[in-house]
Amino acid sequence: xxxxxxxxxxxxxxxxxxxxxxxxxxxxxxxxxxxxxxxxxxxxxxxxxxxxxxxxxxxxxxxxxxxxxxxxxxxxxxxxxxxxxxxxxxxxxxxxxxxxxxxxxxxxxxxxxxxxxxxxxxxxxxxxxxxxxxxxxxxxxxxxxxxxxxxxxxxxxxxxxxxxxxxxxxxxxxxxxxxxxxxxxxxxxxxxxxxxxxxxxxxxxxxxxxxxxxxxxxxxxxxxxxxxxxxxxxxxxxxxxxxxxxxxxxxxxxxxxxxxxxxxxxxxxxxxxxxxxxxxxxxxxxxxxxxxxxxxxxxxxxxxxxxxxxxxxxxxxxxxxxxxxxxxxxxxxxxxxxxxxxxxxxxxxxxxxxxxxxxxxxxxxxxxxxxxxxxxxxxxxxxxxxxxxxxxxxxxxxxxxxxxxxxxxxxxxxxxxxxxxxxxxxxxxxxxxxxxxxxxxxxxxxxxxxxxxxxxxxxxxxxxxxxxxxxxxxxxxxxxxxxxxxxxxxxxxxxxxxxxxxxxxxxxxxxxxxxxxxxxxxxxxxxxxxxxxxxxxxxxxxxxxxxxxxxxxxxxxxxxxxxxxxxxxxxxxxxxxxxxxxxxxxxxxxxxxxxxxxxxxxxxxxxxxxxxxxxxxxxxxxxxxxxxxxxxxxxxxxxxxxxxxxxxxxxxxxxxxxxxxxxxxxxxxxxxxxxxxxxxxxxxxxxxxxxxxxxxxxxxxxxxxxxxxxxxxxxxxxxxxxxxxxxxxxxxxxxxxxxxxxxxxxxxxxxxxxxxxxxxxxxxxxx
Length: 767
Known about the structure:
- Mean pLDDT is 83; it is low at 160-167, 482-493 and 513-520.
- By secondary structure, the protein is α/β, with parallel strands linked by helices.
- Helix 25 (671-680) links the parallel strand 22 (662-666) and strand 23.
- 40% of the residues lie in helices and 16% in strands.
- The chain contains 27 helices and 25 strands.
- It is globular, with a radius of gyration of 32 Å.
């Protein structure tokens, strides 16, 4: 239990630090205001003003921590050890007083490592580590851990009397930093948004966060190990440590679906990093409206690496010679584009480097030049026609409608969407492109009727990866051109209404001047690359989706996190070895396993262990650190009783975890049905994927098991686990490894309570 004296001590320091933070903010505002009204006499002055304004606005953005605690910990070094008895407060950003003396150190600074890494065996020179709980700028509690010095002595204050806080902890011999603070954070009700964990990062997590930038870091972690939080905090740490490089090259965070991205989107801004790009794989493929869900067999086939070869062969069939000669009028004469000319041009063009659309120009120039030479030789001998230079003739020929039409038939200008749409909608083209690569059954599986217009095409997630592949083959359809684009957030943090007179007018001019900037507009076949890529739930990516990711990789620096025990997609890469084979890292990747589950309680992990064993026998479940005090509940009912029993069970779980959040997890095809059932019973259930709903912030959500990866709730109710476990099977009684992994994901989403309700047969792993 915290002492009043210690709370008062930390409150006094907090007041000083907050005052210093206000002073830092005022300095940044003054810098911004002076830049807004500065007299500009030349181009150099304009550049200088832009730099100063940009620096001030960026600094204000960094200092805007909202209602987050300024600091959360303190480390005291041994008097005869490192730092000669120095004391540091650890927080979410560095704060100094007016004399530039450090008051709070950034959690990413090297000196802060000891706060996360120190243990009783390796104290790293610390005599004490203190966790400070702050709410609304008031210190509400402290938790102290003392470390022995080199002689085994612990310097405890004489008046210090401590109560053990073992309740809720599993006695497994784990070295936990700040167990009381950790339990308090884990026991807090979910909000529908992931929060940062900088106050409770544990040693094994901190080691991953501070790993070097270069190369691929592969992180395997079971449910509750914090792998997503670790990956996001690593992104923030790398930006802090390698800011000059990564602010220029960019950082990309890839998640499995938009719902997941909404769940994690506030983490990096809370850590002071707002310049990171968050996207799904499909979101990286521009101008593709993904709004359809496909049969799992088709999805699996489209994700297969063989599709890259099929697409390349499909494109080759579009590069073909004319079957008949074409007459092209030039002036008062006619030249003939012979079929054999086009055959020779196509063969030469196929051997040229570059993509399809680039080589189209070469084909056009070659054919037009050949016709121009024939024309010139024909009419220059008898002088019956005024001759032009061959180059001018060539241009004249290329601009005729007949030549343009012929060239489009020989070597059409194409987009990735056109290649895929034509391939999937033409059985003959599918057979030609898939011969020797796909089986007859697979070719038949890929076929779908053509759409009459591009707006009608309902693309799927798997289609997006194929379109990206096709775009690389065909290349841009047009040259990039400079355009004016609005630059969002240029003056974010500037309260224009706070200005008056000349200051306000100058600020408005500044806002107007910086509202647009010239940039290069990219063709849809061009894409942005990144200096570091963080991939979450990587186990669910298909080989074709991994190829999309690889194309965005600029330096070979990636953090890949996931759990093969939670691989739930039909097109999953199946193993880390298969995943790395597609990515082909430039250097030997490093692998780290997260072995401790902080979020998922012991009761839930024990209950789900048999399902994991059946789904992935080579994987071990993580070790839990806490108990929730509630044994998972299994409810068996008849079909007739199911609706009422589900409503009653859900209402009971809502009351048990209030004000926490409850998720009812079902198969995707039953989401709407269960939402209707719960609403009919008087419960405000929502489908979080509905854009008009509160999303994951709702108190009660109905979630598809296929999209539950990475999410967490206070309580979870799994409906008809047998239907989830036989996912992908041809009958209702067969369990599949993918179905069992999906069930394992569903069972391990709660932080406090788990219930299972079924009218059908339970999987053997839950009996």
